[in-house]
Amino acid sequence: MGSSGDRARALLAGRVDAVPMHVEQAAQLAQKGNFQILVRPWQEYDNWFSAVVMTTGAWLKDDANKAAAVAVLKSILTSFRQTDDDYAWYKSQVAEYASSKELKGADDAFLKPVWSTLTTEIKAFPKTMDELNADQFAKVIPAYKEAGALKGTVDLGKLIDRAYLEQALKELG
Question: Which SUPFAM superfamilies match (predicted)?
Answer without folding.
Answer: Periplasmic binding protein-like II
